[in-house]
């Protein structure tokens, strides 16, 4: 369970703190914000902490990660190295659970304290989630397994193709009657009980082909499914593969309330979780992940208010827009939170979290709503002409009753 995040002077993030609830049922944490305010930086800084000394394998120019401040550095810590801090005055602290210390990001590497959260499983995914079309990182993965869990969060060229090879290998193991070959049956049941949109199902796995049935029952290789399915399935299969490497392939799944779900716990970071998803799936993606991975804590970024609805079982945060004053990262609470979780889409977009009153409706739409308000006032005074009566009736069909008086 993720408990606390503190990032200082990393790129555009000056000083952000997330204090997450000490409640295992609160597992869907959403970060909102305009482009360029640091959502991706936040995901990457947390991910880098969990590489636990293997960050060099990602070949990052960490010098470019330093922010503008010159006074940052964990100087109160006895393990603090002032020579390193002179080169890298930035830090990222993460507390995965109450009894775990944090790690410090310093000068192109990660320095672990005595009680490193290395045992905590963490994986992260960027917005470019796909099975094919990227570089082969298999050699790097064998040498740096912790860093490999975060590859797609740091580059667009990291395809999640290892997941397909892994599934095909499970098929071979199953044919050979090997003990670990039984994982394929569990994986198939998991996918088909997870509730993919429109009843899409995993049909069968062969040595060189993974076949799904689409919404119309047509058989398709997994690579030919629509972008939304491939985005979610590539991430899901890779996550389960990485968990099998961390926890072992035995007891990967368990039955909860009659559904087959992943048994293990961990932390998963997803940048732009709504990428490629239809709005109907954006509204359900949080519930889908929470149901399929009931012991995993998710921290996601998004531009979609629909993704936020699952945060009834978590929290919502917003990074400050350029030119705003106040704390750089604030938690959305109270009435604003209720509008996002329980209100309609228009209310969510006009909330303080999104601040998009001009986007919820087109320019022409706002003009028509303004005209409806004018006619409302005239109608209450019985001043409508016959022509205006017709216009008034027509405009009333365009807007919900709770918006007609605006």
Plain-language structure description:
By secondary structure, the chain is α/β, with parallel strands linked by helices. Helix content is about 35%, strand content about 20%. It has 14 helices and 16 strands. It has helices spanning about 40-50, 80-85, 140-145, 145-150, 150-155, 160-175, 185-195, 225-245, 280, 285-290, 335-340, 345-350, 365-380, 385-395, and strands at about 5-10, 15-20, 30, 90-95, 105, 110, 120-125, 200-205, 210-215, 220, 255, 260, 265-270, 295-300, 315-320, 330. The chain has a six-stranded mixed sheet with strand order 7-13-14-3-15-16, sandwiched between helices. Strands 2-1-4 form a three-stranded antiparallel sheet, with helices on one face. It has a three-stranded antiparallel sheet with strand order 8-9-10. A hairpin with a 2-residue loop joins strand 8 and strand 9 (about 210-215). Helix 6 (about 160-175) crosses helix 8 (about 225-245) and helix 13 (about 365-380) packs across helix 14. Residues about 75-90 and about 100-115 have low confidence and may be disordered.
The gist of it:
This protein is α/β, with parallel strands linked by helices and 406 residues long. It contains 14 helices and 16 strands.
Unreliable spans are 73-89, 98-117
Terminal CA distance: 44 Å
Instruction: Note the main sheet.
Output: 6 strands, mixed
Strand content: 15-25%
**Global mean pLDDT:** 81
């Amino acid at each position: 369970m993720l408990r606390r995040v503190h990032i200082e002077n990393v790129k555009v993030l000056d000083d952000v703190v997330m204090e997450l609830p000490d409640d295992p049922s609160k597992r869907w944490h959403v970060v909102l914000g305009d482009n360029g305010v640091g959502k991706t930086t936040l995901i990457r800084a947390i991910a880098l902490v969990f590489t636990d000394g293997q960050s060099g394998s990602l070949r990052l120019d960490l010098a470019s990660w330093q922010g503008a401040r010159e006074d940052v550095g964990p100087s109160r810590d006895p393990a603090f190295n002032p020579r390193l801090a002179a080169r890298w005055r930035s830090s990222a602290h993460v507390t995965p659970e109450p009894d775990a210390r944090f790690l410090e990001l310093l000068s192109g590497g990660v320095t672990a304290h005595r009680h490193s959260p290395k045992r905590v499983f963490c994986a992260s995914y960027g917005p470019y989630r796909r099975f094919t079309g990227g570089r082969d990182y298999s050699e790097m993965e064998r040498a740096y397994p912790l860093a490999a869990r975060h590859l797609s969060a740091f580059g667009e060229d990291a395809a999640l193709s290892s997941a397909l090879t892994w599934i095909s290998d499970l098929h071979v193991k199953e044919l050979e009657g090997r003990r670990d070959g039984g994982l394929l049956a569990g994986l198939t049941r998991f996918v088909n009980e997870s509730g993919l949109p429109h009843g899409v199902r995993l049909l069968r796995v062969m040595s060189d082909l993974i076949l799904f049935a689409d919404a119309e029952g047509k058989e398709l290789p997994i690579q030919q499914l629509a972008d939304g399915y491939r985005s979610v399935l590539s991430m899901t299969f890779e996550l389960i593969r990485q968990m099998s490497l961390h926890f072992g392939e035995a007891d990967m799944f368990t039955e909860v309330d009659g559904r087959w779900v992943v048994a293990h716990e961990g932390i998963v970071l997803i940048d732009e979780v709504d990428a490629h998803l239809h709005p109907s799936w954006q509204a359900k993606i949080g519930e889908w992940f929470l149901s399929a991975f009931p012991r995993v804590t998710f921290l996601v970024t998004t531009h979609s208010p629909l993704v936020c609805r699952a945060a009834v079982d978590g929290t919502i945060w917003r990074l400050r827009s350029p030119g705003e004053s106040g704390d750089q990262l604030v938690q959305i609470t109270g009435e604003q939170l209720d509008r996002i979780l329980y209100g309609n889409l228009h209310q969510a977009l006009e909330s303080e979290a999104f601040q998009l009153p001009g986007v919820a409706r087109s320019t022409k739409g706002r003009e028509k709503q303004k005209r409806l308000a004018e006619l409302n006032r005239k109608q209450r005074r019985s001043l409508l002409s016959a022509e205006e009566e017709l216009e008034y009736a027509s405009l009333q069909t365009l807007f919900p009753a709770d918006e007609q008086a605006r």
